[in-house]
Hints:
alpha/beta; Rossmann fold; 2 domains; seven-stranded parallel beta sheet; 18 helices; globular
Amino acid sequence: xxxxxxxxxxxxxxxxxxxxxxxxxxxxxxxxxxxxxxxxxxxxxxxxxxxxxxxxxxxxxxxxxxxxxxxxxxxxxxxxxxxxxxxxxxxxxxxxxxxxxxxxxxxxxxxxxxxxxxxxxxxxxxxxxxxxxxxxxxxxxxxxxxxxxxxxxxxxxxxxxxxxxxxxxxxxxxxxxxxxxxxxxxxxxxxxxxxxxxxxxxxxxxxxxxxxxxxxxxxxxxxxxxxxxxxxxxxxxxxxxxxxxxxxxxxxxxxxxxxxxxxxxxxxxxxxxxxxxxxxxxxxxxxxxxxxxxxxxxxxxxxxxxxxxxxxxxxxxxxxxxxxxxxxxxxxxxxxxxxxxxxxxxxxxxxxxxxxxxxxxxxxxxxxxxxxxxxxxxxxxxxxxxxxxxxxxxxxxxxxxxxxxxxxxxxxxxxxxxxxxxxxxxxxxxxxxxxxxxxxxxxxxxxxxxxxxxxxxxxxxxxxxxxxxxxx
Length: 472
């Protein structure tokens, strides 16, 4: 665990001597000095009584390492640059400080006092839910501002007054443009999963929002990875930040197992289906919305309770699907990267990359859905021969040394690693669905069949069917 701050050698945000970091790593000021010592307990932090009581009521007895590292300096009003993997407790690391420093103040209509920016709707809702009991304990009002839901209702909630706003950049920018929200009273800003906001193209909107917040306030930037994509934000908007870092820039969690399963292309989705049919929940990643929908339909036709999560779904649909996955209504969540970023599900012990991620950062974010808060978990990546070189590069970039196994559907090795078993429905007549041929191929067309060949085959089948009818 490391908590340290740069030397106070700059007069304002955006002006410091910064050491060049290797590509993909965060460059921080060359000279650093220690921040406040980590806290050994919540009692040492002199939190408001309402927060202490709420923590006890929710069974939170001791601070997680990122909380112990960041909270002393955050409560003192220092800017924080926090690096900790998802599931490490970083929401309370910034949330308790934000709430404690906002206690006793009352927001005017449309003018919040504290702002939390996150990259996705799901993460916004989870942060809001995590902070809600603690905000209520202090009598603070909070509003969640995300796309996909009624902007009029969100504008009305802001007009009624809210001390804390949790928002995605796009929807907040819309409300600011409509003059339904003014940022001239914001004293505290948190950027959660900042690198993901940059990766998703939100940097211009985030910068525009921060430019409207009065200078001199507190800024806290937290993320599972801090790399040079967020260098602009750090250099221009954080002033002498305390560096609170639990994880090295790259590497795996000790409670997490990483497996690469080499599979034959024709057997890939049969393998994935057997994994999905296991006892217990599983989160499965695929590349595209179409692939997610098609694989989800296949799983349901195979008797596996599955739900799809991607940006093409409405926000109520996404919220409902995620809620069903959390409460056990469905056992398999099939998702794209964007939709699943930041989601938190208790006791999720298996993540499967049906399609490998594009880089090491995405691998770490996907894998961060399991082994949260000290729990154990496994990450499995299905790899065909043509993907092996790329996956080797991804694992190297992520600092991961996985266990590599050649597997086939129905084998004991697959069951031993993932708990895979035969799906409840295997007979086409029972399922009432066409046999699943893999993603990206039209139903009924054999793999690698050209369009002309398919048309010729269908014409031949039509002629044969006509002959049968004539003979009846």
